[in-house]
Amino acid sequence: DLLDCNLKVLSIINTDAYFFIAYEITETTSPKKYVIRKIVRNATEFNFVELELSKKPVNMAFSNDRLFVLSLDEGVTNENEVIVVNNMTFKVINKQGLGYDVKKIFKDSNEDIVFGYDELHTLLNKETLAVSYTRYGLGTEPKFANTALHDLDSEHKLYYSMPAEDLATSSIPAVYDLKNNLATLYIYENFLTSAQLEVEYRIEATTALSYDEENNILLIGYKKIGNQNLGGILRIKPVPNLEFIDNINLEGIPHDIIVH
User: Fold this and answer.
1) pLDDT tens by residue, 63-82
2) Average pLDDT over residues 99-125
3) How high is the pLDDT of residue 44?
4) Which residues contact 154 (CB under 8 A, 6 or more apart)?
């Protein structure tokens, strides 16, 4: 029934035991319906339960056997809210207003819930549901709320591609320390020569970023200039001992790098 032409899937996440699908149903004679469906994985028979919401579920995260739903009061107040759902009963146990313009929801290294805005981020404790805020200084915004997040290490450091202005590339690798509110920007010109950046590797944009904790190496995926669907991966030593190691050319553009 999820193939209904009037149904639009808004978000999908999964755990080892479940799939969670948030969707909206549009009918000409009634208001939109917002529903979250929980599907049991590896069940002998197809099995699911559903929860209907009054606000649009934009995205979700799962922690502490709870589903955290980032919702939007679309077309009314346009405010965001987090809806907390007990996974066992699949009923709402808490709601908290988040204000306007929440751009992202994800889990930190402690599996607490982070909500990203342009000018700050909010941390929601997965157990007590207590809230704390980190506001950025003017001109020091890490800008991870509007881009793809690629990795999160055990030290609460977030790895992502940051949109860039007035640089040779449209985006650069960046690392944000959630614990200490500190962003480190890896501008290509600081570890590559102009010939390497513009001629040898022809880097247009950062598309993936991962950290090899065991070997202390950053792996940077990138797209090459042009429409040939070509890319590569750079390996560098991170600050404070910034050093270029090597490059691997790829027949394709890397969008995720997983280190085992």
Assistant:
1) 999 999 999 999 899 999 99
2) 96
3) 86
4) 109, 213
Q: Which two tokens stand for residue 47?
A: 């099995």
**12 close to 20: Cβ distance less than 8 angstroms:** yes
- Contacts made by residues 100-103, CB under 8 angstroms, sequence distance 24+: 102/58, 102/70, 103/145, 103/146
Taking the CA atoms of residue 81, residue 86, residue 87 and residue 89 in that order, the dihedral angle to the nearest 10 degrees is -130
Amino acid sitting at position 27? E
Please state the pTM of the whole predicted model. Answer: 0.91
The CA-atom distances, in angstroms, between 47 and each of 38, 44, 50, 78, 160 are: 8, 9, 11, 34, 36
Arithmetic mean of pLDDT, 116-136 = 97
Count of beta carbons in the 10 Å neighbourhood of residue 168: 16
DSSP code of 173? Answer: E
C-alpha distance from residue 224 to each of 66, 195, 220, 254 (Å): 41, 14, 13, 11
Question: How many residues can be counted in the chain?
Answer: 260
Averaged pLDDT score across all residues of the chain: 94
- Write the burial class of residue 137 (CB in 10 Å: 0-12 exposed, 13-18 middle, 19+ buried): exposed
